[in-house]
Amino acid sequence: MTFSLFLYSLLSATTLGDVGVQPSRTSAEDKFNSVQSSLGVSLNTIKEDWADALKLPDFSGEFVQTVLTDSSADRAGIHPGDVIVSLDNRPIAPNWNVFFLLHQKAPGTRVSIGVVRHGEPLTVEATLFPPSTPDHKGARVLFVGTPINETSHDVIADLSRQLGIEGLEMLPRYGLQLGLADPNVKGVVISRVLPDSDAHKKGLMRGDIVTTADFRSIENPSQLEVVMDSLRKKSYNIMIVTVLRRGQEPVFLPLKFK
To answer: Which pLDDT does position 150 carry in this prediction?
Structure first.
């Protein structure tokens, strides 16, 4: 497929919907807003794919999807991609999640938060903000992955056997034509998703942009293959990727490969 045909197919497609895996919310919206406003994060519960991709021993903890700029979490040093595993030495579990434990804390309370970052445990101290500040629709802290040194290739690559997608290196001129808020975004823009792949099951679509893999920034399909190769050598077949969809916030999700 030539890029001009690929671009035309993107621009003529219907409006993109939500990415399949979104930050988890409790059944009551006000509960979600309370967590986000008091600590300044949005969270995913840890399930099998998440635990495997994050190399966690069990399903304990909650994954940090977003951190609000200048929030309690931001000031404490919590990053997108962290896993919150404890609060004041109480382990995070399905029946003792972050919302439940924070709900018992008054604004201004200082809490000790156990975090796992790239497999390494650490503890941070945070002072909870009142529920009204910061606004849960405020600016997000951007996640920046570790760079990879690999030659760029301006070609459409067939990653269907390994990952169930075909993709193209994202270049500024493509970002401008696609109407991205930041045309200089780097990554692999998806041109095709195989229907029976894990990528399809997770809700990935043509036009989505994969910007990081295993917390490493990628700029082209070759770099994506480098990440998968390095994980295969460690007997892993799943990784956390960051996905950007036009007009939406980037999200993390676990993605299997062969």
So the answer is: 54
d(CA 209, CA 179): 13
State the Cα–Cα distance between residues 48 and 58, nearest whole angstrom: 8
DSSP helix, strand, coil percent of the chain (3-state; round to 5): 25, 30, 45
**Environment class of residue 233 by beta-carbon count within 10 Å: exposed (0-12), middle (13-18) or buried (19+)?**
exposed
Q: What is the largest CA-CA distance in the chain?
A: 58
* Fold agreement (29-127, 143-256): yes
- pLDDT confidence of residue 149: 62
Alpha-carbon distance of 41 to 119, in angstroms, equals 20
What confidence category does residue 101 fall into, taking pLDDT thresholds of 50, 70 and 90? confident
Find the length of the chain: 258
Six-digit token string for 194: 């195989």
Burial 46-57 (b: 16+ CB within 10 A, else e): beebbbbbbebe
For the stretch 27-71, pLDDT in tens is 333 333 344 447 889 999 998 899 999 999 888 899 999 998 988
Nearest to 99 by CA among 20, 48, 45: 45
Cis peptide upstream of residue 57 (ω within 30 degrees of 0): no
Domain limits of the chain? 29-127, 143-256
Structure tokens at 208: 């989505």
CATH number of this structure's domain 29-127: 2.30.42.10
Which range (38-42, 140-144, 168-172, 217-221) has the least confidence? Answer: 140-144
Average pLDDT, the chain: 79
Question: What pTM, to 2 d.p., does this model score?
Answer: 0.77
